[in-house]
Design a protein that fits this description.
Layout lengths: L23 H5 L15 E7 L5 E7 L1 H4 L4 E6 L8 E2 L5 E7 L2 H10 L1 E6 L16 E3 L3 E3 L2 H7 L2 E9 L2 E2 L7 E7 L2 E6 L4 H12 L6 E3 L15 H14 L3 E4 L2 H7 L2 E2 L2 E9 L5 E10 L21 E8 L14 H19 L3 H7 L7 H15 L1 H4 L11 E12 L6 E7 L5 E4 L9 H13 L6 E4 L16 H28 L6 E4 L2 E4 L2 E7 H5 L7 E7 L12 E12 L5 E11 L6 H20 L30 E7 L2 H4 L14 H13 L10 H12 L1
Helix pairs in contact: 8-17, 12-13, 15-17
Length: 712
């Protein structure tokens, strides 16, 4: 058995090099096929009838007018949407129409008549005092003696902070194309779970899991929302089977925003007790949140600074008549970072101290004190903290005020269960097969790079075959576990296959197989590069039966190839126009611990994308619910605001790949860099204008309202 380790840095030929994505050309030229692009012969198109009310009971459903329309093939009532059903949010799926064209399907959906008994609703959770009938307080959690800590404190700081519900806003909406071939179902979804979504759908349909063939070449993001086939996927399969024709069903943008998942809100009133030197000795918080009708879980606060000795936490889950939450890139962590870091920043102001020193002073309460202190200093160096930071409220003349702020984060990111098959053919062709998915992060490229490193080949010589559940099982893309899983299984599979090739080649080179290595397109003798065979010449020894070897990453025993647990610090530099309330991003510095980096280019890309999401959430993004109608007012891409290129400013990424981190193996980087940014931006704005804007997004309206409160 070969030794499964990563090569030392000085021996790496591919790993750690900036490498273009192997699918970049097909995407840039528009040749990449997404699920929405699939067009099957004789295909029908579906449109969903949804409930317009936040809370209602279905009295009756009349599909006759729609069914009589020319070109309408069938109308299907969703399971769980029959008369008598109580609907708890607007956008809930009632019926599915199948027609010859998309336009006709939408027109027919409007012809379906549903009679509702409209019931009272509640959709705004920001004010906890208004939510008593919809609230469920959790048991109080107490550690140490917080009452005594607040008695002994030299300074007590108190503040209110909040983040609203935001939507996933994936570029391709949820949906699929389905085609039955006898009792076999061909399934083209947009999913983060190629290996398991078919089995989940099969269970709902009452058929064997092996009867569902899942295929996905590319997808347009998921952010944690695309694991399940969902009710619309099950209905699509049922209706496609009924009519005997392929059927395409994708959510329109409004329905996507209303029901396809969201990041739950979090609000909190937080008190901190501290000594005059900045040491925090007590924490007290009353928090509440919603993720729809299930309420919302307690944010993990105090965040990162988890070992504050005296703590009292109270949390209330608030039910609202709105679409349910789903995992959203680093679930609950951006919210917890914002709540905690804003409270610490306010404490620093109460103490009259530089917040950088307060964060560093309390780093011993974190799981990685020295990592955070080093990262805080590095971020401060990159942003020019010593030169630009000032006590709250920029005193320079003019209406433009500048400020700096800090945010911190942590994440796990170990590897999931992954299996990889490596096939080496007699003509030198190498194939890697995994039932994984590339959700836009560069997974294909990472797999190819690991194989190329192991086999001593260029990246372009590797053919990566993913996105099909007939390949070996590989886990879902969630929790930042994909890169750890697929890199480890690929490393093992290619090492196993290479060992078989060494055994075939060794007699010709007159050495034992363990004396061979694969380098620069050759199989050669270690220490004697002149004794070598070119890759293709060596592969001719294989014969008619290809070498085919498996490799598995076991999360319980990753063998040092991947680990979990990272920390990150971000600092923001903003300018605020005190006359208009507009906030300008000058810079966002991202310092991220990340273990062994396979491809610095895609690793940095993860950080750039995460920074963009943080800027969106801090300054623009918010689900706005109308209390009267119970509907989301901005369920579109016109009024649901996100940051464009001119809004982002400079993003400076520093990957913390010091040798001690490199030795930890691969660690997922999808979620960690999305966590600290909102807090950093919120604290920077506060530093600039001298007053806290407690709830994001920090729109011009909220900026001006805060300035008015300060003046009053």
């Amino acid at each position: 058995m070969p030794e499964y380790t990563w090569p030392a840095p000085e021996r790496r030929g591919v790993l750690g090099r900036r490498t273009n994505r192997i699918d970049g050309l097909v995407k840039a030229t528009g040749r990449a096929k997404y699920a929405y692009d699939i067009k099957r012969p004789n295909m029908l198109y579906g449109a969903i009838v949804t409930c317009p009310y936040a809370h209602a009971r279905i009295r009756s459903i009349d599909t006759s007018a729609a069914e009589k329309m020319k070109g309408v093939v069938a109308v299907h009532i969703f399971d769980g949407s029959s008369p008598g059903t109580e609907v708890n949010w607007a956008g809930y799926e009632i019926a599915l129409v199948a027609a010859e064209t998309e336009a006709l399907a939408r027109e027919a959906a409007r012809a379906v008549k549903v009679d509702y008994e409209v019931l009272p609703h509640f959709v705004r959770e920001e004010d906890l005092s208004k939510a008593a009938a919809y609230s469920k307080p959790a048991a109080e959690q107490v550690v140490g003696d917080p009452d005594q800590a607040f008695k002994e404190a030299d300074v007590i700081s108190e503040g209110f902070y909040g983040l609203p519900v935001v939507c996933h806003l994936t570029w391709d909406t949820h949906g699929q194309v389905m085609e039955w071939k006898g009792d076999q179902l061909e399934y083209w979804p947009t999913t983060q779970s190629v290996s398991s979504i078919g089995a989940e759908l099969a269970k709902a349909l009452g058929i064997p899991a092996t009867n569902v063939h899942v295929m996905q070449e590319h997808m347009g993001l998921g952010y944690g929302s695309k694991f399940s086939p969902d009710r619309w996927g099950i209905a699509c399969a049922q209706l496609a089977r009924k009519v005997g024709r392929p059927l395409k069903v994708f959510l329109d943008r409004r329905t996507e925003q209303e029901i396809a998942g969201n990041r739950p809100s979090h609000f909190a009133r937080i008190r901190l007790a501290a000594k005059k030197d900045g040491t925090i000795i007590g924490w007290e918080s009353r928090s509440w949140s919603t993720g729809g009708m299930t309420g919302g879980g307690m944010p993990p606060i105090p965040y990162v600074f988890t070992n504050i000795p005296n703590r009292r936490l109270n949390h209330t889950a608030v039910r609202v008549n709105a679409g349910p939450q789903r995992a959203w890139r680093a679930p609950n962590h951006p919210q917890a970072s914002y709540l905690t870091c804003c409270a610490i920043d306010d404490l620093a102001a109460s103490l009259g101290m530089d917040p950088l020193e307060v964060f560093k002073k309390n780093a011993d309460y974190t799981a990685r004190a020295e990592v955070y202190r080093w990262q805080l200093d590095k971020a401060a160096e990159l942003i020019g903290w010593k030169k630009l930071w000032h006590p709250r409220g920029d005193k320079t003349p003019g209406r433009i005020k500048r400020g700096l702020g800090i945010g911190v984060g942590t994440w796990g990111g170990a590897g999931h269960l992954s299996n990889c098959r490596c096939n080496i053919h007699a003509d030198g062709t190498v194939e890697l097969e995994l039932a994984s998915q590339d959700i836009g992060t560069g997974t294909r490229t990472v797999i190819a790079m690991v194989a190329a490193e192991t086999l001593g080949l260029p990246v372009g010589a590797i053919r990566v075959k993913i996105g099909d559940n007939r390949y070996p099982f590989s886990g879902t893309s969630g929790g930042s576990t994909t890169v750890g899983g697929v890199s480890s299984s690929t490393r093992k599979a290619t090492a196993n296959a290479l060992e078989k090739l060494f055994a075939l080649v060794a007699p010709d080179l007159g050495v034992a197989p363990d004396q061979l290595e694969a380098v620069n397109g050759q199989i050669r003798v270690k220490g004697d590069p002149k004794k070598a065979l070119a890759w293709k010449a060596a592969c001719k020894k294989i014969g008619s039966t290809p070498i085919s070897e498996m490799g598995q990453n076991d999360p319980k025993n990753p063998m040092g190839l991947n680990t979990g647990g990272v920390g990150g610090v971000q600092m923001a530099d903003v300018s605020v126009d005190t006359e208009t309330g507009l906030i300008k991003m000058n810079r966002l510095v991202v310092v991220q611990d990340c273990g062994l980096i396979i491809n610095p280019k895609t690793a940095e890309s993860q950080c750039y994308g995460a920074a963009h999401l943080s800027i969106c959430a801090a300054l623009y993004e918010e689900r706005i619910m109308d209390e009267i109608t119970g509907r989301m007012l901005n369920a579109d891409m016109e009024f649901y605001k996100i940051a464009g290129n001119p809004d982002i400013g400079d993003i400076i990424v520093y990957l913390d790949i010091r040798p001690e981190h490199d030795k930890r193996g691969v660690i997922g980087l999808g979620e960690p860099p999305v966590i600290p940014g909102i807090a950093a931006i919120g604290n920077a704005v506060t530093n600039a204008i001298g007053v806290r804007i407690p709830v994001v997004p920090m729109t011009p309206e909220r900026v001006l309202a805060a300035l008015e409160r300060r003046s009053a």
